[in-house]
Write a structure and sequence with these properties.
ten-stranded mixed β-sheet, Aminopeptidase, alpha+beta, 30% strand, single chain, 10 helices
């Protein structure tokens, strides 16, 4: 989800990090949540980590995450020594539009891809929101109020369709039942981005995600994109395979580290 508020100060900026409270996450998860951004050019990792921990302990933040390239092992290891825990590795993948946008059949194993509408929200929340079990929200669910990980994705789906969180949203339907979703957006550099893809458990490995991706590629092309970016958790082998088949290649691996005031593994 995108953060709603921003917090930084001169001390943090000088040391090389900033802390961003996440209002929506805090409301849904039931714990004061923040995102940390770190300046990767900082050389003194120990000084940065010490200052960051001091700032976190002196704030109202109870749960915070930071994402770093896995290749930045010195910074990753320093944060782990200061109480951060690795909760997620994810792959950044890029594909060329021409590798994605082949001839699109109207029906893909009986499934029709359409523009998502408000009428699809309830069904998508019921069939797709519970399926993102590889995400850190589910892995760290013991920190949150009961049912919070599912509610997080329910809110993501609703806001993507109704509140402009995404530029465009596609829904996959089988016999008029919503069984999959894909959200699409364009970044400032003209690169297409797919923030969210989800498929009902009973309809996976049937070409639904690939079909959604290929249809979305035509929309990206109409927006002037030549490449598309997507991310997936490294342990989500089914999604990784689907994206490879669709034409995506891994260009980087990121690690998500979590800090909590009462750190429980």
């Amino acid at each position: 989800m995108k953060e709603c508020d921003h917090l930084t100060n001169s001390e943090e900026s000088k040391v090389g990090y900033s802390i961003h409270p996440l209002a929506i996450d805090t409301e849904i998860l039931g714990i004061n949540t923040a995102k940390i951004q770190i300046d990767l050019s900082v050389v003194d990792h120990t000084k940065l980590a010490n200052s960051l921990i001091k700032s976190l302990n002196g704030s109202e933040v109870e749960y915070a995450t930071v994402r770093l390239p896995i290749s930045n092992d010195e910074m990753v290891n320093e944060l782990k020594q200061h109480g951060f825990v690795e909760v997620e590795n994810y792959l950044i993948k890029i594909a060329k539009i021409e590798d994605l946008s082949g001839k699109i059949p109207k029906y893909i194993n009986g499934i029709v891809v359409k523009t998502a509408t408000n009428g699809d929200i309830d069904e998508l929340q019921k069939t797709v929101a519970p399926t993102f079990t590889h995400s850190r929200f589910f892995k760290d669910s013991h920190y949150f109020t009961e049912g919070a990980p599912v509610r997080m994705y329910e809110e993501w789906i609703k806001n993507s369709i109704t509140s402009g969180l995404a530029d465009f949203v596609f829904v996959a339907k089988l016999k008029n039942q919503a069984v999959g979703i894909l959200t699409a957006e364009m970044d400032k550099e003209g690169l297409g981005h797919i923030p969210l893809v989800g498929v009902h458990d009973k309809h996976r490995r049937k070409g639904v995600a690939s079909g959604l991706t290929r249809v979305a590629a035509h929309w990206f092309k109409s927006q002037g994109a030549t490449r598309v970016r997507i991310e997936t958790q490294a342990d989500n082998e089914a999604a990784d395979l689907a994206y490879k088949k669709a034409g995506f290649n891994t260009v980087d691996t990121m690690v998500t580290l979590r800090w909590a005031k009462e750190n429980r593994n």
